[in-house]
Write a structure and sequence with these properties.
Rossmann fold, three-stranded antiparallel beta sheet, 15% strand
């Protein structure tokens, strides 16, 4: 049995195993159909002029006449699907710019599909997408099919890697070493003039690298362009309509798709919602509050309640002091663990990622214990920690994340504004507020967006089922309520607790609502609630 000692106590092999298994998911704290079939959606172009969706030119025949060549997915691209079938993969070509389909090279979109387990009960296509933006969607149909045999029997479950991501045509920015320096170097709480200047210098260098390495692709890695890809996918599948399930950023994709192609959606579930009625700047600057709330209201009380195991304090206040003590030690003396230099930013990133699901709280608690006495940890644990903390943000993920969030909607470009705004965020909500300047500096220097502004209203849509937990750190409840109010006819299921993503989280109440809606069209008569998932 491997144990490592702290003054007056020992951590057991179980705690070591939790630490060794700790994962740091990247990210905070993540197609054009027939235009005659679109509804009267109001778009606003970059110059403020109004334009109709119908301004999109007809889809050239070379795209609509493609045949999808489905083959078993390669290892790592999806793997075996649950519920009695394997995941299939294919690809399709799309225009770089749906508004000018004959200008520029085509892009490739990677697709995946889990066929309905029972053809006799098949009711249609259920499309899903990944969060982030920047995560891969290819494996997701297999996971959903395994989790919900009922949905796997009734639907062909399909997904894709969004343009800019994974096996699709990727956007390329800086290499991993430069991304590591941008997010993991000097303490992001440092508000000195030199630190602020360094942040802006790195942000500008990152944007220049994106422009240099992406071959003119940046203006077209947007949510609006991606939903046109989705509708071509629908058409190539031979489906008149699709149903849709979208968690996190995929809620944004789903809301935009339904708005631009309202007659092509049947049943829609949006889970853990970005405020798709607003802009990315407003949404992302709200996250420091929600990550701090989740940390203070959920994690610290949990840590105090488990003081007998982790010995970080018997009250939330004592537990917070322990966190700050560990962090201060890393500030004064960054820790080299098997070649990975761990700074305060690494601890903050581990904390924000652990807050996405309360099953990860033990990982963060064990990490805090390790960082106090790393020399007493077994070699296996040291190697595991070094591997998990080596890269705070993946270079490929970051490239797409900024392409979408900086390019979808306008950002304030005044550096003085961001210095003041981020200083306040760092002071009041330091856990995630310290990183705000890094994110904002990139978008403040991003090429000005040419994406149309899409107003999501719910007009012409069937009722949409929405899910959100009260203390979700990433897609915070206040934003979900705004999105719900802006999406006419939607129903909001409020879930107790703070986990991010409600369906497929072991919550029987949530699962019943989602499956009932997607299978039978059932909806609650009004907004309602579910308890937190039982552990």
């Amino acid at each position: 049995m491997h144990v490592f000692k702290k003054p007056g106590r020992w951590l057991t092999a179980a705690a070591c195993a939790l630490l060794a298994a700790a994962a740091l998911p990247a990210g905070p704290a993540s197609a054009a159909g027939l235009t005659a079939l679109t509804g009267p959606v109001s778009l606003t172009g970059p110059a403020g002029r109004a334009a109709a969706v119908g301004a999109t030119p007809p889809v050239p025949g070379r795209y609509r006449q493609q045949q999808l060549d489905w083959q078993p997915c390669a290892d790592g691209a999806g793997g075996a699907g649950g519920a009695g079938g394997s995941l299939e993969c294919a690809s399709m070509s799309v225009p770089r710019d749906w508004y000018h389909p004959d200008s520029g090279p085509d892009l490739t979109i990677a697709l995946s599909r889990h066929r309905a387990a029972d053809p006799a009960k098949r009711r249609g296509v259920l499309m899903m997408a990944a969060g982030g933006p920047g995560a891969s969607g290819l494996p997701r149909p297999a996971r959903l099919a395994s989790y919900s045999p009922k949905l796997a029997a009734a639907y062909d479950i399909v997904s894709f890697d969004q343009r800019g991501v994974g096996a699709s045509t990727k956007v390329v920015c800086s290499d991993q070493e430069e991304v590591d320096a941008m997010f993991g170097g000097a303490d992001l709480r440092d508000r000195s003039a030199a630190a602020v200047r360094r942040t802006f210098d790195r942000a500008r260098a990152f944007v220049r690298a994106c422009e240099r390495n992406s071959g003119g692709l940046l203006p077209y890695i947007t949510t609006d362009q991606a939903v046109h890809d989705m509708d071509l996918y629908r058409e190539l599948l031979g489906a008149e309509q699709i149903s849709y399930y979208g968690p996190s950023y995929a809620s944004f994709l789903g809301a935009y798709y339904a708005t631009e192609f309202p007659r092509r959606v049947e049943r829609v579930v949006l889970d853990s919602n970005v405020d798709f009625t607003g802009d990315w700047q407003s949404f992302l600057t709200g996250q420091p509050m929600s990550f701090q709330r989740r940390f203070e209201q959920d994690f610290l009380p949990w840590l105090a309640a488990n003081d007998a195991t982790y010995h970080q304090g018997r009250t939330p206040e004592e537990a917070e002091a322990s966190y700050e003590r560990v962090r201060a030690a890393l500030h004064d003396r960054p820790l080299d663990v098997e070649g990975t230099v761990i700074t305060p930013n690494h601890l903050d990133a581990a904390a924000t990622n652990a807050l996405y699901n309360d099953r990860q709280f033990a990982d963060l608690a064990s990490l805090m214990a390790f960082l106090e006495h790393p020399e007493e940890a077994p070699a296996q644990t040291r190697k595991a920690v070094a591997g998990k903390l080596k890269h705070l943000m993946g270079a490929e993920f970051v490239a797409d994340f900024f392409a979408v969030t900086c390019g979808d909607t306008p950002w304030n470009r005044d550096s003085r504004y961001w210095v003041e705004e981020s200083a306040e965020a760092t002071r009041t909500h330091p856990l995630a507020g310290a990183r705000e300047l890094t994110y904002a500096a990139v978008c403040a220097n991003w090429p000005r967006s040419k994406a149309p502004r899409i107003k999501v209203t719910g007009e012409g849509l069937p009722p949409v089922l929405m899910l959100n937990s009260k203390n979700d750190p990433a897609t915070y409840y206040e934003a979900a309520v705004r999105a719900h109010r802006g999406l006419a006819g939607s129903r909001l299921i409020t879930v107790e607790g703070g986990d991010h993503v409600q369906f497929q989280n072991g919550n029987a109440c949530v699962d019943a609502y989602v499956e009932g809606h997607l299978l039978d069209g059932a909806l609650p008569a009004q907004d309602t609630a579910c308890p937190a998932a039982r552990r």
